Amino acid sequence: MLTPSLSRRAVLAGAAAAAAVPLAAGHARAAETAGYRWRNVVIGGTGFITGVLFHPRVRGLAYARTDIGGTYRWDDRRERWVPLLDHIGWDDWNLLGVEAMAVDPAHPDRLYLACGTYAQSWGSNGAVLRSEDRGATWRRTDLTVKLGANEDGRGTGERLLVDPRDSDTLWLGTRHDGLLRSADRSATWAPANGFPATPLATGQGVTLLVAAGRTVYAGWGDGGAANLFRTSDGTTWEAVPGRPSGTAARVPIRAAYDRHTRELYVTYADAPGPNGQSDGSVHRLSTAGGTWTEVTPVTPGGTTGEGGGADTFGYGGVAVDARRPGTVVVSTNNRWAAVDTLYRSTDGGRSWRSLKDTAVLDVSETPYLKWGGDEPKFGWWIQALALDPYDSQHLVYGTGATLYATRDLRHWAPRVRGLEEASVTQLVSPPAGRAHLISGSRDIGVMYHERLTSSPAAGMATNPVFGSATGLAQAARRPSCVVRTGWGENGNGAVSHDGGRTWAPFASQPGIAEDAPGPIAVNADGSVLLWSFVHWDGTAYPAHRSADGGATWSEVPSFPEGAVPVADPVDPALFYAYDTGTGTLLASTDGGRSFAARAGGLPAGDTQFKVAAAPGRTGDLWLSAKWNGLYRSTDGGGSFTKAESCWASYTLGFGKAADGAGYPAVYQVGSTEAITAVYRSDDEARTWVRINDDDHQWGWTGETVTGDPRVHGRVYLATNGRGIQYGEPA
């Protein structure tokens, strides 16, 4: 997932853990806007569901957390998920990753979230959000420690817990700063006195917190003599005697308590996951007698499996049946040979059956889950698992792309209406044809959206299937020609001659394309392709050109390595590129064979630039520069004039002109005043109107934006974790 390096407001300093209590309202007063209605373009799921939590006392109340896309509440009446963190603004993008969540059994309206996407040195500190109305509004406490909702171990947990003896007391397990405690319902935090484990700088720290009666258990993922601790008085902690040992029980992943039998079930693996696990086990602790029993359904190892190869994996999720003593479900994780499954036991783990073996999967609402094949898979990265306390056959589990649910333990379907987590990188809105939008995302490739309100019927673009899209472009004067690039299974580039409905792989590709597919451009009449190459680690390579639809390629030495190629929308001979290192606009007048410098002295060294060509005009270029604002050229890059209307511009796009206007609508994510927001201009960037509001911000939105060339006012916005948002005047 994307890791933008952005600033956010400084948090208040404090001790090793505690901070202040600033207000963060989910429905803050909106700034003056143009009155837009915002909705998701429907794909369905598309990201890693890292946790699912049913409220133990309220039928139909459940929450789901994601690694980069916030938290959702299940609306049982409408049968859809409601996003709870869309109000998170640009400066606070790091808080859209939710490390852990907790509910209060005694107070059903209370919800707590531990937020923070990255614990790296460049990441901002985490925060705890608390709500008294099930996530409608929030109060916030900034921490002085970092959390890691999109790092290894993000599927463990929950790391946040309301103390079973006192609703005012909460516990928070961190990765690198030990165990924290709050005595005032998360308003302030401090290190938990007496917690005996010492965190490692590169470790996992506290992996889980669970209540077993009035006792709190804490899982520990940093090794040492013990990996499970407990306290019965909230002050004195001890290592749990007799705990499992060995590689298969190195990291406790999740735990669930059966209050009827007074037994605690713990899943283990040799690594935190979701990747990198090759061994694991499941154990049951009698909390009354202190006896441990291994109840592992299948021991990892061997060479059997549907896909062949070593059958290695760990164990992930665990859930107990609140209505049936001794009934427990666990999930495997990172099991690629035999494919992950759920095991269910009705006798306390003495015997198990695989639910995958009899599963009937229906992905008709989200066809992309077939991944270009004929049948969907049961799932992977299964660490989130929950069993409805009011329905023994209502079971849900998260995967790396969706949330499956069943009501009879046999028929399964995605339960993702309203939940959209794609990290979107590419958007094209065609001027004609059946689709108003073609999109490219990380992990789920390219999709053709004939309808905005349902998942694309054809699923992911195939021939080839892409894991992540790196480039998407349409020939301006021949919109039937569309090209795409990305990380593919059988080639990293493809062309469509029917506007993006069907695809054919390039007949050949440059050697570097296998390891570093990057952005691509197609000239105005579709006769020339220009492909730039950038490895995932940022290393850039010479661009290549094809004049025969991808059959042959030749290197373009004068193209600035790593730059994004841009085609003129009118003249097929013209291409442009921006050298970010020198602040120079280059142009080609010979169909991309060679490039020469034009305007210089433009912003250089910034971390984000975009060159966009105004539709229907030749040589009309716009340069958005992250920290330097917006520039325009009307002579093909020979000279640029800075727009005085904004001081920061992250991405820019165009849409249909307003009635009576002679120039396309211009959309941008940028800053015209103190805040970063989404804006539209109908007068060539002389003035702007904000078109999102304080309730609709979605964290970091600086990847790409485009208007619809057929509908004035409609805009499509790429987010990093909340899918594709589209707005229309209300």
TrEMBL record:
GO biological process, one term: polysaccharide catabolic process
UniProt cross-references to Gene3D superfamilies, sorted A to Z: YVTN repeat-like/Quinoprotein amine dehydrogenase
Cited InterPro entries: TAT_signal, WD40/YVTN_repeat-like_dom_sf, Xyloglucanase_GH74
GO MF annotations in UniProt: hydrolase activity, acting on glycosyl bonds
Signal peptide start-end: 1-30
Keyword line: Carbohydrate metabolism, Glycosidase, Hydrolase, Polysaccharide degradation, Signal
UniProt keyword Hydrolase present: yes
Family to which this protein belongs: Belongs to the glycosyl hydrolase 74 family.
Record's protein name: Carbohydrate-binding protein
Lineage: Bacteria, Bacillati, Actinomycetota, Actinomycetes, Kitasatosporales
